[in-house]
Amino acid sequence: EFDEKPAEAKSNLASMGVYCFDWPVLRRSLIEDAEDPDSKNDFGHNIIPRMLSQDLFLHALTFAGYWKDVGTIKSLWDTNMDVLDKPDELDLHDDSWIIYSKNPQRPSHYFGPKAVAERIAISDGAELYGEARHSIISIDAIIEEGALVEDSIVMPGAVVKSGAVLRKCIIGMNTVIESDVVISPDKYDMCSFVNEKLCEDGISVIAQDLVIHAGNKICGNSMIGPEDAVTHPDVVSEKPTKYSY
C-alpha cells in the first residue's frame, strides 16, 4: 500500500521520495499516466499506486539514517544548520557514507590573520578574513575583513564585503553583498521585500548573480530576486554570471 500525504497517517513510515526503476517499466508507466486525463502526473499520487494496482514488484527499503524534506526555505536552512548542530546524525566525515560529487579542484580554504571562525563548515577555495559564526561557507565564497556572517548559508562564489552583517540569510551564487549592508531578522525601514508566504523565522533569501548596494538595511523574511533590480535599483542590481557550479 502506498498513500501519498494522507490526512491521517496509518504508520510512522514516510516516503523519502527517492525511487529506482527498471527503465522499460518506468517508461511504460509514464506513458500510461500521460494518457490518463484525470491524472495529476505525480509519482506519489498516481504512478506508484498504478504500479501497485498492476501487481508490479515494488519494494520499500527502510532507511534509519538522516533524511529531511527540504521543500521549504526554512527546511533548507534547518538542514544546513543540522550539518553544524547534529554531527551524530549528519556526519560528513563518515567513511562509510561517502558523498559522490564532482570535485572542482580548488585550493584549500584560507583564513586571514584576523579571521574569526566559530562552528562553521567551509569549502575549498573559500576565503575568510572577517567573522563567520554558525554558518555554511561554500566553495570560492569570500568574507572580507570587518564583515560578520552568522547563522547563514553563503553559496558558491558569493562575496560579503567589509562592514556587512548577515544574520539568518541564504545568499545565492556569485552574489555580492556590498559594504555596510545589514540583512537581519531585526526590523528596519527597508522591508519592501518581505515575503512571509515563502520566508519565515526571520530567514532572508538573496538570489544568485545580484549586487546588494552598500549601506542598505533589510529586515528578516525578505526575498530579493532579479526582478527587484527593476523596481528597486537603489537597493539591488544584476551582475554577469561569474561561474557556473
* Quaternary structure annotation: single chain
Strand content: 15-25%
Uncertain segments are none
Provide the succession of SSEs: HHHEEEEEEEEEEEEEEEEEEHE
DSSP helix fraction: 10-25%
Number of domains: 2
Main beta sheet: 7 strands, mixed
What report would you give on this structure?
Helix content is 16%, strand content 19%. It has 245 residues and is an alpha/beta fold. The protein folds into 2 domains: 1-64, no CATH class; 110-238, Hexapeptide repeat proteins (UDP N-Acetylglucosamine Acyltransferase, domain 1, 3 Solenoid), CATH 2.160.10.10. The radius of gyration is 22 Å and the shape is globular. The protein is built from 4 helices and 19 strands. Strands 1-4-7-10-13-16-19 form a 7-stranded mixed beta sheet. Strands 2-5-8-11-14-17 form a 6-stranded parallel beta sheet, with no helix packed on it.
What labels would you give this structure?
245 residues, alpha/beta, UDP N-Acetylglucosamine Acyltransferase, domain 1, 6-stranded parallel sheet, 4 helices, 19 strands, 19% strand
